[in-house]
Amino acid sequence: MTDSEPHIIVRDLTMAYGSFVVQRDLTFTINHGDIFIIMGGSGCGKSTLMRHMIGLQKPAAGQVIIDGFNFWNVDIQERETMMRNFGILYQSGALWSSMTLAENIALPLEEYTDLSTNDIKEVISLKLALVGLSGFEEYYPSEISGGMQKRAGLARAMALDPEILFFDEPSAGLDPISAKLLDDLILELRDSLGATVVIVTHELASIFAIGNNSVFLDPETKTMIAGGDPNKLLAESKNPKVQNFLTRGKNKL
Amino acid sequence: MTAQCEIKFSKPEAKKLLLQLSGDWKLENNIPDVTAVEKELQPDSGIQCISFCTSEVTGWDSGILTFLIKILDCCSKNNIRTEIDGLPQGVQRLLSLASAVAEREGARKEFVHEPFLVQIGSGTINFVRSTIEFLNFLGEVSVAFMRMLRGKARFRRLDFLLIIQDCGINALPIVSLICLLVGLILAFIAAIQLKMFGAQIYIASLVGIGMVRVLGAVMAGIIMAGRTSASFAAQIGTMEVNEEIDALKTTGISPIEFLVLPRVLALVLMMPLLCVFADLMGVLGGLIVGVGMLGISITEYYNMTVASVGIDYFLIGIFQSCVFGILVALSGCLRGMQCKRSASAVGDAATSAVVTGITSIVIATAIITILFNIIGI
Fold it and tell me: Model confidence over B69-78: pLDDT tens digits?
């Protein structure tokens, strides 16, 4: 697959809770191997957009097309098959608290593969080693720190070697060094697994360091007001809101 | 003692009001009421400009700010110019900071009083909606159950065993204590009445039938509603708050199969056992009163109990307890799954699980009793 092939296409997407519209007319394309950033101020619907792309919330109107299939039009079995290609890191990690880290990672593997117990064990050790948590197999999520929970969540998200990785505010609550390490890890994963990465964040350092495509949501007009490579946006965008956001309010146009 | 805060008005020029503040302007120091100033600023007073002198102010905090903001609001309403350079530097800066971001339109929540009919209407709609939600939930659980019968449902055996331990063995002490006492109380009340007729021996029948047919199951059910249903709601609710349920869904695992099914099964299995135990303890309570207070011998009491409590009563009790098990587990899990994303929502879920559990137990008891009456058991 070439890098420029579209992987996810979002077309005229309108998101709403009941009659309250969060965002409307969102249209953008995510190519294979992109690191795509969903950005915007607090409360503009970034996480909601992600929930629409991973199948947790049905769009009020519009389409999400993944690998050519209309995600919300196919029947439920097909959608579940598509969801199997997703790896998702939730904002809080969302590790299942009644299970150890090993069991957390094992669950999707047991669900979708015919691996033997021994093979699963090896995969678990590998995934934990990738995120720097070797030896923590038998720990419960409550016994490790927030940063470690995030990394363990990432290990679980990668359990099935997904084609698309979704991250909801991966660096929120992490110190700058851990955040940088996580960024490096994300780049590494994209390069080695060839995965497409979608990140919800407003961490400017990460946005510029790893993003190569983006969409900017605006809470006031309730739609996207910019998109594309964040570095280009910073250099070329004439939109005062975008400039303001990307420069922490220093470049007021 | 700190100087009281005071305010003096003077008019150095016509149409200009000078406010001289003095003393310690802090929140705890009885700051003067702002209405006195507002009176001075009435449109008919002809004042067009106000200024401040604060050279005698010895200290200030948020108290002076809230006071000044009220005055500034009043001035802008009456088109009066304000000269704030007489205020301390810090106060000036904080005032300009407070007015830097204008209040967002529509941000303030409005509480509209709804007319009575509207309240009835929305109440009815909510009731219908929650009934539909409950039926949906019931349907999903039934589907999950069928999948389990076909060997397709997925949940962890360890979770199942832990839940059994929690709602079975761990609930035994409280269930036995309460049921022993209920049996005791029942016998005690009956004893006073039956003694008058010399019919003390019928205490055994009364306590036996009462506990075995209804009370054993109902008491065990209510205890489990308070204990286990609340804990189910809190567990599942917290998982919802932590996005753990979302994580299950996106992994393709049905939360109904994974979380609800083992809980319902565990309670349906454990409730009859608890019920048997509750029956026994209740009869034991009656026996203590009968033997200790009324002088009936243990053999007599035993024989009377066995003679009056038929196997059909026992089976009715067991059947009821199975139904209660389903109800308690369902109400706990349903409220947990409906939980919103905040700490207080988890509390609400637990409360409403207990209320739903107990209410449904009482309603189910009534229905079952009437039904069995009609079929004549």
Answer: 888 888 888 8
pLDDT digits 0-9 by tens, B339-354: 988 889 999 999 999 9
Calpha distance A27→A11 (Å, rounded):
4
What distance in Å separates the CA atoms of residue A38 and residue A41, rounded to the nearest whole number? 10
**Res A67: pLDDT:** 86
Same domain? For B234 and B85 the reply is no
Residue A61 sits in a domain whose CATH number is: 3.40.50.300
Of A88, A91, A96, the CB nearest to B244: A96
Closest chain B residue to A158 measured between Cα atoms? B251
The pLDDT assigned to B105 comes to 64
Chain A contact probe: residue of B246, B257, B263, B340 with most A CBs at under 10 A: B246
Same domain, B362 and B305: yes
Question: Which neighbouring-strand residues pair with A98?
Answer: none
**Are A164 and A7 within 8 A, CB to CB?**
yes
Q: Are B324 and B358 in contact (CB under 8 A)?
A: no
B229 belongs to a structural domain: yes
Residues 6+ apart with CB under 8 A from B298: B287, B291
| Beta-strand runs (E) in A52-108 | 61-66, 69-70, 86-89
Asked if residues B33 and B66 have their Cβ atoms less than 8 Å apart, the reply is: no
Same domain for B246 and B297, yes or no, is: yes
Give the bridge partners for A40, in sequence order.
Answer: A217
CB pairs under 8 A between A and B: 47
In a domain, B107, yes or no: no
Looking at residue B1, its pLDDT comes to: 46
Q: Which of B156, B248, B250 sits opposite A55 (nearest CB)?
A: B250
* Interface mutation vs chain A, best among B154, B251, B342, most A CBs within 10 Å: B251
Listed residue (B288, B243, B235, B294) closest to B262, CA to CA:
B235
Looking at the structure, do residues B200 and B261 belong to the same domain, yes or no? yes
Do B226 and B354 meet the contact criterion of CB atoms below 8 Å apart?
A: yes
Tokens of A97: 């608290």
Residue B104 lies in a domain: no
Look up the domain containing A229 and give its range. 1-85+189-253
Q: Give the pLDDT confidence score for residue B75 in this predicted structure.
A: 84
Question: CA-to-CA distance for B201 and B17, rounded, in angstroms?
Answer: 96
- Decide if A94 and B243 are in contact by the 8 Å CB cutoff: yes
Which amino acid does the sequence have at B170?
Answer: N
Q: What was the pLDDT predicted at B106?
A: 62
Task: Tell me which DSSP letter residue A90 carries.
Answer: B
Express each pLDDT in A33-88 by its tens digit.
Answer: 889 999 888 778 888 899 888 888 888 888 888 888 888 888 888 888 888 888 89
In the β-sheet with A20-31, what is the strand arrangement from edge to edge? A20-31, A6-17, A61-66, A69-70
User: Are residues B203 and B305 part of one domain?
Assistant: yes
Residue B198's alpha-carbon distances to A201, A246, B236, B272, in angstroms, are 82, 92, 55, 36
Which domain does B281 fall in, by range?
Answer: 137-375
Judged by DSSP in three states, A96 sits in coil
CA B269 – CA B263 distance, rounded (Å): 10
CA-based torsion, A193, A199, A201, A205: positive or negative: positive
